[in-house]
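tool_log.txt
---
The assistant was asked to compare two proteins side by side. It first ran the structure predictor on the initial sequence, then on the second. Raw inputs and outputs are pasted verbatim so the downstream comparison step can read them without reformatting.
(1)
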Amino acid sequence: MPSAYAGASPGSSQAGAKDLAWWEGFHDQMLSSLVSRAANSNLTVAQAQQNLAAARAMAHSALSGYRPELGATGIANAATGPRVNNDFTRRPLQLNLEAGWEVALFGQDRQVQKSADLTAQIAYEDLAAAKLAVTAEIAANYVHLRALQRRRADTADMIGLLERNSRLANVREQVGLATASDTELQKSVIDTARSRLVELESEIATSVQQIATLEGTSTPTADLSKPQPQPTVRASLLGGRPADLLRLRPDVRRAEFAVAQAGAQVGIAKSDLYPKLRLSGTIGIGAPIGSSLFGASGGPSLQIPLFDLGRRKDVVAASEAKFREAGLAYRQAVLVAYEEASRALREFNAARQKTTLLRSRLKRATMVRNSADKLVQEGLEDKSKSIRGALDILELRASLTDSLEDEARALIAFYKATGTAQQASSSPVPERRM
């Protein structure tokens, strides 16, 4: 990785990645509450948690196949005829304790445990990825919702101004200063604005329902329907070295663990090329002793692979190919993460510059309109000029709303791309149950 992102601006903050609760930077209590609730109730996150619990349970008992085993068996046989059969498998009653132990040779037990632990680590990163995706989606939908509500309010104001302008057009038509086509044009513009208002209402309802789904419920939070100020980015975007930030990204960490797990599978496959030793024994009533009702038997067994048509070697070759494939997948995951973060940085910096310019233009336009309003009040200007000025300001506000949303969404995309949306950047090693 290079020392800085390709899309980073020279003035980017170099704050560390420890400031992980980035959504707090919006200073929006509702957004923080939504993120907190979704982390506890989102169904995708809940599924990932259960997958993690299953993986940890399997990791706890991964070595059970290489530990002594003890079992009990009971057999009752019945037969007809007076002849006594000394075959121990045909004896009327057997009650035995059986013990067995496959001795781990050539480090196979270590590789098995390592593979199981890495499966749990991968499941943990899947959980982190689910939380990351849900957090980003909650934030993006919330930012979009507040922008839609801002657009709805501006559209309603625009309709009011257009209706005033239409009434003035009617008056001018009556006195012969305008034509009927001018009046009809004004009505068409009003109808278009009203149609847009209906579309915005539908988009707002859809966005509210999407947020409810992310929360794991069908009933949206009532406060979401109440218009609130549009969330704005109040701090500089976090910078830092790509190699440091991308290590926090769950899919990159998952790909790293997948490489290690593929290496463990190579070790397991290679250990199958060598002999296996197993110790076993039986003790109890009806044991396989020719002249005794009670006895014991046991001993070692050695399995030596001699001829299997190359199956074990093919398994090793396949495992090594999977290991190389996992390494390439890891490199691809890093490159994709870097590209996504760089693109988000470029979009953020462009949106921030646009926001600054639009705010400056809006300030100047407001000053011009205030001057025009004074002239209208003194009868030196036509009212329609004041209305046009107000409409121009609404257009600038609409552009500013879009730019603020783009800036916020780019910020969200950056933190999602770098994985710094998570409070915990490292996964604990699952405990082993011996």
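(2)
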Amino acid sequence: MSGAPARVFIARLAGIAVFDPAGDQVGRVRDVVVALRLAPRPPRVLGLVVEVASRRAVFLPITRVTVIEADAVIFDGRLNVRRFQKRESETLVIAEMLDRTVRFRDGGETVTVMDVAMEPTRTRDWHVTKVAVRRRTGRGLRKRGESMVVDWDAVEGFSAVEHGQGAAGLIAAFERMKPADLANIVHELSEKRRAEVAVALDDERLADVLEELPEDDQIEILGKLEVDRAADVLEAMGPDDAADLLGELPTEQRERLLTLMEPQDAAPVRRLLTYADHSAGGLMTTDPVIVPPDATVAEALALIRNPDLNPALAAQVYVCRPPTATPTGRYLGTVHFQKLLREPPPTLVSGIVDAELDPLRPAMSLEAVAMFLATYNLVAGAVVDENGHLLGSVTIDDVLDHLLPEDWRETAMDASAEGSADPEEEALRGTT
């Protein structure tokens, strides 16, 4: 393999770009597939799991990889686009090996796996040869938490089923991933690893991932969390997403979680649960960007610059008389972000508000909301009650989510592209 380094630490490959010989990017590395063998023989590297278009994971045989660099993998251009499915005899390094507890063969001291390294052989095969570990307990003059790199055959325990395996290393490997991409990885993990990842993620990150997962995965993960933690994660979710998830739970479980949530977080979720699922009220979020009429353009722009804000929500601000919090503010109109960009910063939003467009009503159907947004080329619309109070905002992403089939997320994650069996791949993986 030209350009191959002597040793590659696998966790560092997560997320790096994969290019064909012409220099076109075809995807990103998600994981490395290995076949464990009887000790002391090191695991054989079979190939890479590469995420291509539509977040589909495919298998790239290691024999087709020509270059591995710090920021890129290059292969020979041959790629079977069938969806990757892990076989019983195979192990995913990042998903299953990192954070595992293993022990030294010469004494039984337990250590935690931080990374593993692979190296090429003279026959152009790749083997896992090194393990980066961190000590769990102090011994002698060695400090607790000391890290080291040891030979593969110096430790044992990779083939055992471990309960309570951590997930910090796996999460760190995919730290820069968008929530939707991390959700795709979480979806394909075993139920055991999904639960471990959920425990290791912080509340905000887990909330973001849950919002992108199929309904069945959401319910499963929430059910594996301690009830207090589950309530904290629901608080971190958008009120509309939390309401959608709680709406699928049994009444007793739903009420218990709502009771454990902070009152100010539970109140908007309870309001959303009173609306029909496919109505404007059921679709809306209660946290749009709201400003009083005496706010300036500069102040409004500062609010929509928030990087954590949904792009559709950031497309406009809603002007309400104080108190501005939903559902108490009296709605005056909308100012679109393009209008904000065209006006001098000191301008008051009350002078540029668009009050001509009738707002959405909470009882409007999904189809009516979709037609409204399409007719006026909008990505979001205000929802206002009969007394003129702003209740929330419906965004185009929520409309699309409900227009698509109920299982569209799971279908997209599990979809297989057409493709015939790959003889080279079958020969390589068949040896396991």
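---
observation on (2): The mean pLDDT is 89. The first strand starts at residue 8 and ends at 9.
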